[in-house]
Design a protein that fits this description.
- By secondary structure, this protein is mostly helical.
- The protein has one domain: Butyryl-CoA Dehydrogenase, subunit A, domain 3 (Up-down Bundle), CATH 1.20.140.
- Helices cover 75% and strands 6% of the residues.
- The protein contains eight helices and five strands, in the order αβαββαβαααβαα.
- The strands form two sheets. Strands 4-1-5 form a three-stranded antiparallel beta sheet. Strands 2-3 form a two-stranded antiparallel sheet.
- The radius of gyration is 24 Å and the shape is elongated.
Amino acid sequence: MTKRTVESACGNCHLKGSLPFIAMLLGALILAASFLLPFGTARKEYREWLSAAPDRVYDEELNMTRRDAINLSLIEIARAFGKAGNLDSSFSMGTIIAAAVFALLTLLFAVLKKPIPAIVFTMLAFGTFLLILKDFDLRGTFSESSSYKLGCACWFAFIGIAAEMFGSILTLVERAKMKKLHIIDGGTAANFADAAAESEKGE
């Protein structure tokens, strides 16, 4: 094996290794962004009523106008639960906060290229999202008779979770391949290339 061949192999491994990382990071970003996107959106008739006077105050304590109430993010829903102040609402707010913390930790470990902790916190975020949806289902928050229906944030969250898991698992697979070839980092790759070059000279 020539030095050029080894360097080429190293380059290909690093290129392949970057693609799973991009998927992992993109998934984590989508998951985190889902907390700012509309999780609940007003149904047609209620939307029309809200849009009729968009600048009118909808909730003074939350500093929310009717325009703001057309689409509600999970953060805004958590604020509304916090305002209620009862035990059930506190539980619902707590699950949303927990999901947000798990999503941010997923993003942190994705940035740090730590796939195993990223997978752990992604699964925790997934579990809390299911709990949030179950809670909303029991409350009838997005039922047919409700003024709101599920928005795009729910689907973005699950897309982000799937992409993050896919990227993290592929990252682990690529690292296992690199470890098997003894080219985990540039220093090991350089040593391997030098050894191959010396072997050629000896021949």
